[in-house]
Amino acid sequence: MLDIRGLYQLNYILMRKPFIAANWKMNKTVGETQSFLNEFISLVQDVKDVDIVIAPPFTSLYTVSSIIKNTNIQLSAQDVFYEDKGAYTGEVSPVMLTDIGCKHVIIGHSERRQYFKETDEIINRKIKAARKHNLGVIFCIGESLEEREAGKTFDVLKREIEEGLKDISAANIVDSIVVAYEPIWAIGTGKTATTEQAQEAHKYIRERLASLYGSKANEIRILYGGSVTSDNIDSLMACADVDGALVGGASLKADSFSRILKFRR
Ligand code: 13P
Fold it and tell me: Does residue 188's CB lie within 6 angstroms of at least one atom of ligand 1?
């Protein structure tokens, strides 16, 4: 029997539609993308109760956009610049992304923070620019191993949330921004956070969101990312505050990503 707390928890789980996104990072040519979709679309055509998102590299966005028309798959970019147009060699604007059919964009991934020196301020500008053009945002946060071992996980998450979402209104966040908790030490390492570690961090993130947005925080989806596979997705999705996943390596193969989308809670 569920007690009253359990009922509230169930209610929140039910009102947050699972959101599972493939972050292909710098993988797949256009030809490889087409082969993936040929297999993938039929594997997931019956998945109705999950937001299914694919984030290919920029070079494959147009191909994916054309092929997924009239399917249950949504398109995301992996990054965006914060200006609409101009002399910014190599950059891509939110206007260009919406024009090509993107519904979402990943912002603040730890690889961009680490290798491309993206700061919380830059990330905040990118989020505002994406929202100005009605792009959904997959906003990534997460601590490094050193930060976790030094007991700074919550401090890092607090700073990344508060700086990244600075001046973003509640109206602009529910249904438009999902937060992806990706502990850096779990990315590409095969070392997934335990369900206790994931739930603890997600609960903390929801509390921080509640301090900014009040009860709206219960409607914001929080994804887990970091060595998600078809073997661990079921237990991760069983955590009360895990509302989806951001999947790297295991999203590159149609069969493993489709199994992840068919998780069982
Ligand atoms: P892996 O699933 O390969 O660990 O990557 C996670 C990630 O960074 C998704 O954005």
Answer: yes
Distance 248 CA to ligand 1 centre (A): 4
What is the Cα–Cα distance from 114 to 146, expressed in whole angstroms?
Answer: 14
Q: Does 55 contact ligand 1 (Cβ within 6 A)?
A: no
The model's pTM: 0.95
Give the residue numbers spanning the domain of 149: 17-261
C-alpha–C-alpha distance, residues 225 and 91, integer Å: 26
Does any ligand 1 atom lie closer than 6 A to the CB of residue 228?
A: yes
At 208-223, the pLDDT tens digits run 999 999 999 999 999 9
Place of tokens 């200006």: 83
Q: Yes or no: say if 57 and 28 are a contact pair by the CB < 8 Å rule.
A: yes
Examine residue 56 and state whether it is found in any structural domain, yes or no: yes
Number of domains present in the structure of the chain: 1
From 109, 111, 147, 202, active-site residue: 109
pLDDT per position as a tens digit, 52-108 = 999 999 999 999 999 999 999 999 999 999 999 999 999 999 999 999 999 999 999
On whether residue 3 sits in a domain, the answer given is no
Residue 243 lies in a domain: yes
**Which ligand 1 atom sits nearest the alpha carbon of residue 247?**
2
